[in-house]
Amino acid sequence: MSQQTTIRKLAELVNTPVEKLLEQLAEAGMSFSGPDQVVTSMEKVKLLGFLKRSHGKADTATDDVAPKKITLARRKVQEVTVAAGRTKTTVNVEVRQKRTYVKPTDAESVSTNWQNEADPERAEILRKLEESRQRNLDEQKRLAQEDARRAEELERRRQEEAAVRAEAEAARLQAEAEAAALAAGAAPVDADETPRPAKPAPGHHVPKPPVRKDPPRVDDRNAAANKHKTRGSHAMVAGVEDDDSTSRFAGQLHLSAADRARRGASRGKPKPKRHLEQSRGGGGAHGFERPTAPVVREVAIGETITVADLAQKLALKGGDVVKALFKMGVMATITQTIDHDTAALITEELGHKPVRADADDVESELLAHTEEVQGDKVARPPVVTIMGHVDHGKTSLLDYIRRTKIASGEAGGITQHIGAYHVETPKGVISFLDTPGHAAFTAMRARGARLTDIVVLVVAADDGVMPQTREAIQHARAAKVPLIVAVNKIDKSDADPLRVKNELLAEEVVAEDFGGDTQMVEISAKTGQGVDDLLDAISIQAEVLELKAVEDGRATGVVIESSLDKGRGPVATVLVQQGTLKKGDYLVCGVQYGRVRALFDETGNQPPSAGPSIPVQVLGLSGVPEAGDDFVVVEDERLAKDVAQQRDAKRRESRLVQSAGSRMEDIMAQLGKGEGQLSLNLIVKADVQGSVEALRHSLTALSNDAIRINIINSGVGGITESDANSAVTSKATVIGFNVRADASARRIIEANGVDLRYFSIIYDVIDQVKQVASGLLGVEIREEIIGIAEVRDVFRSSKFGAVAGCMVVEGVVKRNKPIRVLRDSTVVFEGELESLRRFKENVDEVRNGTECGIGVKAYNDVKPGDQIECFERIEVQRTL
């Protein structure tokens, strides 16, 4: 409060009526006439003391208003000139000091009060401290006495052992001296002719007249004690001095033989000197001993290891390991990675024992999750894979069973993906996998055969057994699954089912009609004839197999197909084999992981869960998994992430091993090649993972001595800016299989003149690359995009169906040219226009920036936001 506080203001501050405050001041001995008078600080302190006394509290020194603590602050500013070369700089230096002074009486009173209040407790603490200190002193005295007693005992034993050794040595020396005297026939020997019991030190000269600096030794026992007390290098010095006989015997003129022997035994012998030399040489308990045999180590080696790590485990220099690798024909530097087999051979070559390292702690934890789910097994639907040669009617058969039309919307009328469906038939639920029949999709067919319970082999009655039919039979045998043959197209006039059965006999597939065990059903996918018999055959075979799985528990299964959707991200089609897959589960797919955000079936619905043998699409993964990878549902995201990262690191190390450590034979074999060999660099992007795999294997297989097909990069999804930059750098041709380049990628491709080609049929891709590789240039058929129209809205008409209201954003849209419907840069339909109108008039073409109405023939699923791409096929003569 300020010094000008009035009674009225003080009453407001302490929340007391003015009249009551005046009464309290009057009772305290201070009279005020009105509420506007000023109250000083001293008067306030007096009032506070009065109120404390009236409430029964101890009264502090209220009269003493002097401050109990004084704080002095000092601030000092100086200027300092600092010379920096030719220039000078002035710096302001400010020094602040603060000191606080406290009244000694206050500190003493506080200390006294504390001591008075805590006197009993403090006395108890001091008593306990004194007792503890006394116990420690007693214990230390006892330990010191025991140490002294042990030292005395040890010294006594040493003296006794020294006396025994001295007596034995004296007796031996006396016997030797007597024998020598008898042999020489001489008189007793004087002290100067006494033979030395110990060998003189090297470089020892004839003793000089005695000049003793040390006091003379009176008792030999004291000399023995001093010998034992001497440590380190002093033992050697004492030994040299004791060898000097003149100085030792300076005080005595005559010695008997026994005295000479006893004194010689009590002198510093070379024995402690030898002991010292042994300890210096490392022969003691902690000294270094040279190994008598080579050290054989057990070296733990993982799947891959760098040369430097291997050298460290072998306790060798890195150069020695590299030298051993070169001797074995492997060219690798110290930083490169080698595989387990090479590292094991090098370890054995260098004389050590290799041991496989099991560092898969995360995989072991995952293995505990993937063990067979405990629970009751229930019957599950069969998984049936449809296989056969291309264009034999596999998808048409499935369309009839599912009452849908898939084959009509496929490019070229052929299947180029694995289709997964589950169908509720009168015979029960059956899951179907539709595999491609083209020769390039061998990996897809093999993957489908491994996942299935039953293989249905579709053979056209008018075409017979073809190469992919034989391949499908081999895949089914390799997977050890039963085979059912469906002879299709029996409604055609030139159908010959008997010919098919006879040709299958050559492949060791014997029909039941011929006494075999293979069911053969004659069907027509177009009319539906025999389809019910085929379903009956599948149901009978499933009952024989007794298919069961655990329904309750964490789900496990296999990735059938995967793709990258622009709007939904990575999408994986999985087949659940055990347990139930639910929304929100954490799962691991190969090197990818994530949480299930949504589940979709083949019709686009979102089921809450998927049980055994049910295929679904999964959203929420961190990336696009490889087709054929196993997926496992785990407890939490941490385990899923750790497993995925460890697998990714192993895969990366494997790639490094493949690219490193070239053998000398391979390098010598390649020295003469490559001079006249051409290289064709390709970047392949497709809509699904299976197509990427098939294209990569098919195109690289076209390489020959004249040209080498090099796949620079491959992936799933549209052509991005990164792909375009990679193509510019490597001068590669970009192949888009059912995908398109985005705007930024197109700008880079057009600016740098990159060769970009779109395909929708795998025949065209392989044929064009094969023609270039084989040197058969011929005529090239190119697809040139002439216009793109963007769908703004869709109008339904009972007369025309779905009519798309569009705006032409690029080029020209012509009515007589083929078109494709793109959704999120992915082809969803290919066909032709049914109508092209401008207002109410039919027009032949619509140019850029103009609105129009477009009717797509045989396709009514056009949605706002789609793009209708108009193109034309032109023939271009290839030139060298």
From TrEMBL:
Residues 211-222 have a biased composition (Basic and acidic residues). Keywords: Cytoplasm, GTP-binding, Initiation factor, Nucleotide-binding, Protein biosynthesis. Residues 133-154, 183-244, 257-291 are annotated as: Disordered. The keyword GTP-binding applies. Residues 379-548 form the Tr-type G domain. It holds the Pfam family GTP_EFTU. InterPro entries: DNA-bd_dom_put_sf (IPR009061), EF-G-like_DII (IPR053905), EFTu-like_2 (IPR004161), IF2_assoc_dom_bac (IPR013575), IF2_II (IPR044145), IF2_N (IPR006847), P-loop_NTPase (IPR027417), Small_GTP-bd (IPR005225). It comes from the Bacteria. Residues 263-274 have a biased composition (Basic residues). It is found in: Cytoplasm. Residues 382-530 are annotated as: G-domain. GTP binds at residues 388-395, 434-438, 488-491. One of its GO terms (molecular function) is translation initiation factor activity. PANTHER family: TR-TYPE G DOMAIN-CONTAINING PROTEIN, TRANSLATION INITIATION FACTOR IF-2-RELATED. NCBIfam families: IF-2 (TIGR00487), small_GTP (TIGR00231). Belongs to the TRAFAC class translation factor GTPase superfamily. Classic translation factor GTPase family. IF-2 subfamily. One of the essential components for the initiation of protein synthesis. Protects formylmethionyl-tRNA from spontaneous hydrolysis and promotes its binding to the 30S ribosomal subunits. Also involved in the hydrolysis of GTP during the formation of the 70S ribosomal complex. This is Translation initiation factor IF-2. It comes from Pseudoxanthomonas putridarboris.
